[in-house]
Structure formats: structure tokens, C-alpha cells
Amino acid sequence: MNIKTFTQLLTAIAATTVTLFSHSPNVVAMNIIDDTYGVGVGSFELGNFVNNGQDFMFVPPGDNTTITGWTVGGPGNGINWLIENGFNADTGIYSLDLSHTSRSSISTTIPTTIGETYQLSFATSASSRFGSFTTQGFVSAGSLINQEFTATTVTPNTSNQVYNFHNFDFIANDALTTLTFTAGNPSSVYGPVIDSVSVALNSPLSVPESSNILGLILVGGGFLFTGIKCKKNKEEEN
């Protein structure tokens, strides 16, 4: 194989490598909540659920053991941990209403890198047995402070409640970041329902530029070709 043919081969390999990097499934961001506490924690799937016979469990403020990875807070009297079939979930079988009978909150703490940007995503619905209903809540994490979001339902059938999706970026201010969701409507017993909570680093994988990949492959290939040629010359001399 001559040097021209060998270079063309390496160029083709480099192009294929760039394509694989760009479309690699490993680029999918990791949910830091699930990675910290266990798969399913971001969607409230782990913990010690006890059904009260109405497909939910009341959890009071201060409780940090019932729902794995999460701590219930005020200012109200707690939250309702919901389960299908009574309350439709976006992921798995559990979701969470941020009000028991008054607006309350829930939080989790995750490891972060100061100055890095993270993307928060979550799904919301509004649990109501009285038809179309809209409520609001607030979310805070790092540089994101009391970001308002709305939750809406158009059906009185909670087993069919439909979810909307939200995405917000925040910058980490500390090595540990607390993510807090708080119900926003003080006059309603129906708080926002949240599910499918995820936090991921905005750029989980830096893909080298194609020119850099090509350069590295060509340099490495050049050494390889030189070695092969030297070996061949020695064999011919012998």
C-alpha cells in the first residue's frame, strides 16, 4: 500500500469516527438525581408508599425518609404522594401533588460543580376533580430563584391527567445544590402535580472537532505507516 492510498484510508476512518461521535447514544445526559439516590428517584418511584385507600399518601413537612431522596417542607401542611390508577403519572406509577390541603414544598440536594450550567426538566399537571383547572408553582436551584411555572388540566378525571413539560437552565453556586419545588396557589387544596424531574449537565460530553480527530488519526497513521515501511525494508535487506 502506497502513502497516498494509506492517507485516503485514514481520512475515511476519521470521517466515520466523527459521525459516530456526533451520533453516539452516550451523548444522552445523565439524570444527576437518579445517579445520586437511585434510578427512579427523579420520578418519585422509590420509598415507603402506603396507600390510604384513595390512591395517595399524605406526607407531612420535615419528612425526609418516606420518599427516597426528597424532603417535604412548608409553608403548608405537606404534600400528597400519588399513585396510579387514581392519579395518572408521567413516568412510572407515582407522581406528587405539592399541596395536601395547603401550599407546601419538596426538595432534594445533588452534587454539582461551581460555575457549571445545568438543565432542569420536569413534567406538570393539575390534580382536580372539577374539570378544567390551572395552578402555579415555583422552582429554585442555584442561580434559578423562584422561577414560576404553570400546571393545567382539562379533565375532571385524575386517572387521565395530562402533563406539560418545562425546561430551565441554572448555574451551580456551590458543590451541593438544593432543588426545591413549591406550590404557588395559597387558596387551593390542589397544588401542581410534578413528575419526571431531571437535572443534567448542559454539556455532558465534549466532542472533538473533526479537524482535530482527523489530525490525530493522520499523525498516528503516519507513525504506523513509517514503522511498516521500515520493517519491510529490513526484510528486503535480509
CATH class of the largest domain: Mainly Beta
Distance between the first and last residues' Cα? 21 Å
How many extended strands?
11
**How many strands, what sense, and barrel or not for the largest sheet?**
6 strands, antiparallel
What is the residue-mean pLDDT, rounded to a whole number?
80
Cα gyration radius (Å): 26 Å
Query: What is the H/E order?
Result: HHEEEEEEEEEEEH
Helix/sheet category: alpha+beta
Number of helices: 3
Helix content: 10-25%
CATH superfamily of the largest domain: Galactose-binding domain-like
Q: In which order are the strands of the major sheet placed?
A: 1-3-4-11-6-9
**How much strand content do the residues show?**
25-35%
How many individual domains?
Answer: 2
- Look up the CATH topology of the largest domain: Jelly Rolls
Q: What is the CATH architecture term of the largest domain?
A: Sandwich
Low-confidence stretches: 9-27, 205-221, 223-228
Q: Report the principal-axis shape.
A: globular
